[in-house]
Design brief:
This protein is mostly helical. The chain folds into two domains: about 230 residues, no CATH class; about 325 residues, no CATH class. It is about 65% helix and about 5% strand.
Length: about 575
């Protein structure tokens, strides 16, 4: 890459920083002809250079120091909706974008999935990717006016097309920034008290100095090697860049352990993979529960029973692997992974599995571990949805407190116990559907599950109460008051009152029935879902993870509510009109 080309990239980046995002593409004139760019070689880095490149550190736009591998994977997923696009390794693809912007500007790489958006772009229904150049008509960005209209529309009133359009517009602008070299802050500024790192364009703009000259030399070696596919020049550029990072940016470089932990997490996808082993444990243990119910009178298993032992090995192995991955994320982020929706979900899933194991060690019928394995897998699957960003980010100032580890751990841990209680209650309601004079073992299992459910709910509401009280102490330190009727505080109190009411039915003779406790535990989870998802994503407040206006309630809420009501009504009718004797 020539100095002239680098200067052009710098000029384009400067333009990108001075105009609104919607107008960004309008400033790029493609009315003149270009010679077609040669296709870059697939996975041209080679194993050694790829490994060295992945382990380089960069500074993202939020100031976080992270491996370059993380940046490559995040941008590949953001832009193409594929971690491996058309056989490209994420690292090779990202570096090729930087080295061959002319080719990739014309190549269909921007993911488009929504049918309405395809119609708006005028592409065929089977199209999956479009090129950045296709979004320009002369010097006009074809989506400029629809994007402006979507931005003017309040979030709650936006159509699905408008939401998808804004996501696509963000994707385009991120890709534009990548092609201009503005996403890769590899070079620490010498002597900067704010520990600022700059990208290729920032290096060019720096006044002459020993640091600037060495950075330009390292950058030239790297970029010229990337464009030529010269492995020796690429390696020389990477090694020179690494030396600059260690000399001028050592104070903010992540530790070797944190770097290795994050690279392992990036490549292993532990939370996604462990979901399948949890589901396998659920299948084996639930089969063991009903097998015991049908053939063994619902009696507890011996720990060495082959069927039960197989299920428990799967479950405990999944739990240990889950815990190991969670600890590695803690090491990689340098803090407790509890600061956003994704991290809180993987912790709630872990707490659910621990809750299931705790009560299974005493119950030994497969119900606690099996049900918790299912719920853990579901929570992890929810965490994989596009709603939740798995990227590690810096803590916002209010969360930079030791109370994060105390308050949030206890609160979210309680959700694991209450979630387990909900599914145990649902399992008991299913057993009520089997009510019959010829099945005394079902009646005995209902009674045992009722006792187990009570202990689970007491533990959950106890943790929730303690966590809420400690949250008041944290609120006083952060905002100068213990209680302010923030939506999160209000719904935490509502959840405590809901479960306290359900538990106190135990001392009302007319309500002291297994069906009542099972129904309360099963339906009570709705208040937990509202406290977590409702407040964090559909209401505004101090605890909200969402940004801007509240969004509309999704359809799955209504579907789930109807299914829960259906099971409750069916179990009530079975309990009401069938006899045990």
């Amino acid at each position: 890459m020539t100095r002239r080309h680098l200067a052009l990239c710098a000029a384009l980046l400067a333009l990108a920083c001075t105009v609104p995002a919607v107008a960004l593409a309008q400033q790029h004139d493609h009315e003149h002809d270009h010679a077609p760019a040669a296709a870059p070689q697939l996975n041209f880095l080679g194993d050694d250079n790829r490994a060295l490149c992945e382990s380089l550190t960069m500074q993202d736009f939020r100031g976080r120091m992270k491996p370059l591998d993380t940046q490559a994977r995040e941008l590949s997923m953001k832009i193409t909706k594929r971690e491996s696009f058309e056989g490209w390794e994420p690292m090779d693809l990202y570096m090729s974008w930087l080295a061959n912007p002319e080719f990739w500007f014309e190549y269909p790489v921007l993911a488009v999935r929504f049918p309405g958006l395809k119609s708006l772009l005028g592409v065929a229904p089977e199209t999956r990717w479009v090129s950045a150049s296709s979004l320009l008509n002369g010097n006009q960005y074809v989506l400029a006016e629809p994007v402006r209209e979507a931005l003017r529309t309040p979030d709650r009133e936006r159509t699905k097309l408008q939401r998808q359009l804004l996501l696509f517009d963000e994707r385009f602008n991120i890709f534009w920034d990548v092609l201009n070299g503005g996403s890769l802050r590899l070079y620490p500024v010498a002597g900067d008290p704010a520990h600022t790192w700059v990208d290729f364009n920032g290096v060019i703009e720096q006044p002459g100095s020993e640091w600037a000259d060495r950075s330009r030399e390292a950058m030239d070696r790297l970029l010229s090697g990337l464009r030529a596919g010269d492995q020796q020049r690429i390696r020389a550029g990477l090694e020179a860049t690494s030396a600059l990072q260690h000399q001028y940016g050592a104070e903010v470089l992540p530790s070797a352990g944190a770097l290795k932990a994050e690279l392992w997490l990036n490549k292993s996808h532990p939370f996604r993979n462990v979901t399948m082993t949890y589901l396998a444990a659920f299948a084996v243990l639930l089969f063991a529960f009903f097998w015991s119910l049908a053939r063994r009178g619902g009696q507890p298993y011996h720990r060495r029973h082959p069927l039960y032992l197989t299920g428990m090995i799967l479950f405990v192995g999944s739990l240990l692997f889950h815990l190991y991955a969670y600890v590695l994320r803690w090491i990689a982020s340098g803090r407790a992974p509890l600061s956003n929706g994704y991290e809180s979900l993987i912790f709630i899933a872990l707490a659910t599995a621990i809750a299931g194991l705790t009560f299974e060690l005493r119950d030994r019928r497969g119900s606690s571990a099996g049900i918790s394995a299912l719920l853990t897998a579901v929570i992890l699957a929810v965490a994989m949805l596009s709603t939740f960003d798995p990227a590690i980010g810096p803590l916002v100032p209010v969360l930079a407190s030791y109370w994060l580890n105390i308050h949030v751990t206890i609160i979210t841990g309680s959700y694991g116990f209450l979630g387990l209680g909900s599914l145990l209650g649902g399992l008991n309601l299913i057993l009520f559907l089997l009510k019959s004079p010829r099945r005394p073992q079902v009646r005995e299992s209902i009674i045992k599950l009722d006792r187990l459910l009570f202990r689970v709910l007491v533990t959950g509401v106890g943790l929730l109460s303690i966590g809420t009280l400690l949250g008041g102490v944290w609120a006083n330190e952060s905002w100068g008051r213990y209680w302010g009727w923030d939506p999160k505080e209000t719904w935490s109190l509502v959840t405590i009152l809901v479960y306290a009411t359900v538990l106190h039915f135990r001392w009302i003779p007319a309500m002291n029935r297994p069906w009542v406790l099972a129904t309360g535990g099963f339906a009570g989870i709705a208040s937990v879902v509202m406290t977590y998802f409702g407040v964090n994503y559909f209401l505004s407040g101090l605890h909200s993870y969402a940004q801007g206006d509240a969004i509309a309630v999704p359809s799955w809420v209504y579907i789930g509510t109807l299914l829960m009501l259906g099971l409750i009504v069916a179990s009530y009718l079975s309990d009401r009109f069938r006899r045990w004797e």
